[in-house]
Amino acid sequence: MKIARDENEKIISAEVEDKICFFEYEINFCILNILYTFVPEELRGRGIANELLINVSKLAAERCYRINPVCSYAVFFYKRYKEFCNLLVDGSLDTSGVCTISRKS
């Protein structure tokens, strides 16, 4: 999977089976806020969002940014992958994220 960064639009994306998976972020000072994560329903469960978040975590480490996971999926990711927790803004794993994770019914 090839991951693309569009720093002007503040999006990191990947094209999988002709569909775009992405997340949106913003940078305020040295804090990278992960705002929204999207993977089409038919591609969910394959680890695509994880790969995107691993990519942004490495970017943050390279640039000495701290991460604020605003999106609830990003909160879930950082609770699960403790190796990136040193990048997080203190207290940022609050579960009151502003976006929700849709599940198939």
Q: What is the strand and helix layout of this fold?
A:
Elements: E1 3-6, E2 11-16, E3 19-28, E4 31-38, H1 48-62, E5 66-69, H2 72-80
Parallel strand pairs: 4-5
Antiparallel strand pairs: 1-2, 2-3, 3-4
Number of strands: 5
Our count of domains comes out at 1
Q: What is the number of helices?
A: 2
Uncertain segments are 95-105
CATH architecture: 3-Layer(aba) Sandwich
> How much of the sequence is in beta strands?
25-35%
Going across the major beta sheet, what is the strand order?
A: 1-2-3-4-5
Radius of gyration over C-alpha positions, nearest whole angstrom: 13 Å
Structure description:
With 105 residues, this protein is an alpha+beta fold. The protein has one domain: Aminopeptidase. 23% of the residues lie in helices and 30% in strands. It is built from 2 helices and 5 strands. The chain has a 5-stranded mixed β-sheet. Strand 4 (31-38), helix 1 and strand 5 (66-69) form a beta-alpha-beta unit.
